[in-house]
Amino acid sequence: MRAELVNRVSGLDRVVEELKKASENVGAICIFLGVVRGISEGKRVLRLEYEAHEKLAPKILLRLLKETKAKYGILDGVIEHKVGSAEVGEPVMCVAVASEHRLEGLRALMELVDRIKQEAPIWKKEVTEEGGRWVEEGRPEGPLIKLKGVLEAEVNVDTCARELIVKLGLPPEEVLVMKEGRVLEGHEEIRRGELVKIVPVGLLLTGGGL
Amino acid sequence: MKVLVRFFARLREEFGTGEKVLKLRDGATLAELLDLVLKDRRPKDLIIAVNNELIGDRPVEDLRLEDGDTVDIMPPASGG
Q1: Ordered DSSP codes for A115-179
Q2: Is A173 on the interface with B (CB under 8 A)?
Q3: What is the tens place of the pLDDT at every residue in A63-115?
Q4: Helix A102-119 vs helix A56-72: crossing angle, to nearest 10
Q5: What ipTM was reported for this prediction?
Q6: By CB count within 10 A, which of A72, A142, A180, B50 is most buried?
Q7: Cα A111–Cα A135–Cα B57 angle in degrees, nearest 5
Q8: Which residues in chain B touch residue A119, judged by CB atoms under 8 angstroms apart?
């Protein structure tokens, strides 16, 4: 398990070889490689400049990796994040997880990438022909809707409870997903075509409408 | 007592410096320091660390600083 800031992101072959050694049970290696986009909001990008808290960032990246391992049962993982100036097309973040099967690997990877972008003290300045600006997407002000009652739905994708909530733009701490009368844990699967109920936590506590 | 305050990324540019030493009363809290430094522009999503440890959800009013502490004030993450 490795998480570090780097001047140059390693080649994927090296990362794959490293993760294959984690266990004989490795059956999937899922990799996210972020690269510098050439156009941003219609402007030509010259470079990105990455800055990080050199002591805190590696510690937080490693914690995120460990938490993801514990949650999804992946076997190993690697995070490399670039600091310094990056040219268009250059890889700037490599997140890779090894798992027994693809499903937990893909889900772990998805969550890990999101959390790195939201939680690791790393910042980027985008330099275009028009000048430089610090990119701060920030957290959304709030969900588009506030769920006031039980939402019954047929799910159109294979997913898991947490992913479904996030994709719907609902706050994960405020709603629960129920299937066949049972509250699902975040990682539990939901298959395409299955019926679920999305329930505000407050309503579940009072039993209203269930 | 003296506390070192460090600014990162956008904040470093806005404050025109990467760090400065503040003199505070003994036993001052992190809330007092933030009020002093950020005044009325204290967005809630800043990342704050004391001595290289994130303060997380701990209330800044309860967090007492000590002489020689380092407080890092960071903008929201934007890596990746």
Answers
A1: HHHHHSSEEEEEEETTEEEE------SS-S----SPEEEE--S-EEHHHHHHHTT--TTTEEEEE
A2: no
A3: 999 999 999 999 999 999 999 999 999 999 999 999 999 999 999 999 999 99
A4: 150
A5: 0.93
A6: A72
A7: 55
A8: 77
Q: Give me B11's structure tokens.
A: 């904040």
Q: Residue A171 — very low, low, confident or very high, per pLDDT cuts 50/70/90?
A: confident
Tell me, yes or no, if the pTM score tops 0.90. Answer: no
Averaged pLDDT score across all residues of chain A = 91
Token digits of residue B15: 């404050």
Residue of A nearest to B54 (CA): A56
pLDDT confidence bin for A124, thresholds 50/70/90: very high
Residues A140/A67, Cβ–Cβ less than 8 Å: no
Q: For residue B8, which of A53, A131, A138 has the smallest C-alpha distance?
A: A53
| Greatest alpha-carbon span in chain B | 40
Q: Is A81 on the interface with B (CB under 8 A)?
A: yes
Q: What is the predicted pLDDT for the residue at A145?
A: 76
Contact A81, A122 (CB under 8 A): yes
Instruction: Check if B9 contacts A (Cβ < 8 Å).
Output: yes
Judge whether A69 and A144 are in contact, CB under 8 Å.
no
